[in-house]
Design brief:
The protein is mostly beta strands. It is built from one helix and six strands, in the order βαβββββ. The chain has one domain.
């Protein structure tokens, strides 16, 4: 199955910053292992799709990560240039 992007599926989305509580002595985000990698690492970003706020996650297994949001069981990927958040939030 080909990867789909959020901007290709939904035209009206809004982003905000909502800090995730870090855990443990290493101050890891939920979903992040001790080495810093993971399939579903919570980020400080949220996106509103159809009037519902959803958490933006990151999949990272090397030096670069890919941002995505879950729509049902499907991952809709987000280009980092698409995230626009006011600096006051």
């Amino acid at each position: 199955m080909a990867s789909r992007y959020l901007s290709e599926v939904y035209s009206q989305v809004e982003y905000k910053r909502s800090p995730v509580p870090l855990r443990g002595m290493l101050q890891l985000a939920p979903g992040q292992n001790a080495h810093g990698y993971g399939d579903k690492i919570s980020t400080d970003y949220m996106v509103r799709i159809n009037n519902r706020w959803r958490r933006v996650y990151c999949i990272c297994h090397s030096n670069a990560g890919s941002l995505y949001v879950l729509e049902g069981k499907e991952r809709l990927f987000i280009r980092d240039t698409e995230i626009q958040v006011d600096s006051e939030q």
